[in-house]
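Troubleshooting log. The previous structure file for this entry was overwritten by mistake, so regenerating from the original sequence record. Sequence copied from the archived sheet and checked twice against the printout by T.R.
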Amino acid sequence: MLAVQSIYDEAMVMQPLEKVQLIDKLLMSLDIPNQTIEQQWNDEAEDRLKAYSNGKLKTVSMKEVFDKYEI
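Regenerated output below.
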């Protein structure tokens, strides 16, 4: 835990942009690609596009979504 505190202490003296860059790098290091999941999402996106193109998928406006979730 001492190493984490030391890194945190160093980060606290960074400029805001440097902090954002550090956060981005840390988050990206957690994003481990999974080819199976990526392929499933690609297939799903293609299926939805085909359904939309064939008139089998109804669209919803952004306003309707925001209204539904009271955003």
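The chain has a mean pLDDT of 95. Archived copy saved in two places this time.
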